Amino acid sequence: MEEQKSNVRAVERALDILLCFTDKTELGLSEIANRISLHKSTVHRLLSTLENKGFVLRDPETEKYRLGFRLWELSANLAHADDPAITLLPEMERLRDLLGETISLYVRDGMERIRIQAVQSTQPVRRVAPIGARMPLAVGASSKVLVAYEDEATIREILADPTWPETIDRQSYLEQLEQIRRLGYSTSVEEREQGAAAIAAPIFNRSGKLVAALAVSGPSNRLTPEKMREFAAPIMEAATRMGKMVK
Asked: What CATH number matches the domain at 80-243, 2.60.120.260, 3.30.450.40, 3.40.50.1000, 3.10.129.10?
């Protein structure tokens, strides 16, 4: 039993190492050890195993690590036909061309949302939206959409989570969720990032299940409240079309 637990811990630690590369291309041994709170000798052993299996590569000059080609081999076998990040990309590009702003697709993961796809604005001044970025669930137009259409029990769990920011009043948040369900979309102005604004709508699949939030974001001086009201209809229409394309 102890040996089994040790093996499971080793797997968890190896996965933690790979997850360190979600926001950086290259990392040194000390950086990785600090991120996952493990001794450098332990991390070095795990990295050696991952390197031998092709999951990470080490630059002999800089002594830094990056993701290996084995991950690309695995990703080639993803069920792309069922992946909304792939399936919905043409519609996202079409919406970007129509509105001229950055388009993003988000899903909920616990108390965070993850950007799984993005199409950058062609404007000279624009919001750059990196794919894979994680953001808190308590703020932002997309976050509120992803919470608003959950069942009541899930919403209660989210609001009761110990990581919920005490600066955000729960009752006021619930009122915002009710308004979102009434309007069919959500907006935010500088809730998470100064100078940025966004509008988001839910994407429901053919079975009526919420699968993602479709968001349009840009500088708040360009994406004004008036402009977002103007964008609401085409965004919701696009979300409806997209919902018919995913399972």
From this structure: 3.30.450.40
* Beta-bridge partner residues of 66: 57
Residue-level length of the chain = 247
Question: What is the rounded CA–CA span in Å between residue 108 and residue 118?
Answer: 16
Q: Residue 225: which of 193, 186, 167, 179 has the closest Cα?
A: 186
pTM of the model: 0.72
- For residue 245, the SS3 value is coil
Structure confidence by residue, pLDDT tens digits, 133-190 = 889 999 999 999 999 999 999 999 999 999 999 999 999 999 999 999 999 999 999 9
Name the CATH topology of 2-73.
Arc Repressor Mutant, subunit A (1.10.10)
